[in-house]
Amino acid sequence: MTVTLQRILASDFPTWIEQSCAEYVGDLLAQGRSHEEARRIAVESMARSFPKSTQSPGNEVFHVMNEVGTAVGYLWIGQDVTTDPGAWWVWDVFINADQRGQGHGRTTMLLGEEYARSHGARSLGLSVFGFNTGARGLYDSLGYETTSVKMLKKLE
């Protein structure tokens, strides 16, 4: 199946922020955070990246569209916050649960790499939660290398 990236419209942006926030909250809950803490972290993260709750320079958000023009996910990509203008980052990539396993994630990542490269990127980084073994396998298969590992042990 073929997918394309379609820049998100300003009118769709508030809905996307809420969806991305909700997905991040879910990931943080799976990591063991409380709902209140997870929501706070997600909202603060979005506010840093999109202070006016609108699109901001250095960040591109795309709908991932299937061949019939239906959004099956999204990609948020942009320049890394380092001083290296050639360093780019995948801030968030999401494929709807009912659309996974069809190659949409792989194609989305390849399209993201192509977009970043065409805008001067020399590297593309990302973070992935340790429990997300499916995504980790995809990134490994695309040639992403582990550059750091963050570990946690609960002392209850």
UniProtKB/TrEMBL annotation:
Start and end residues of each N-acetyltransferase domain: 3-156
Pfam families membership: Acetyltransf_1
Keyword Chloroplast set for record: no
GO MF annotation terms: acyltransferase activity, transferring groups other than amino-acyl groups
InterPro entries: Acyl_CoA_acyltransferase, GNAT_dom
PROSITE patterns: GNAT
Name listed for the protein in its UniProt record: GNAT family N-acetyltransferase
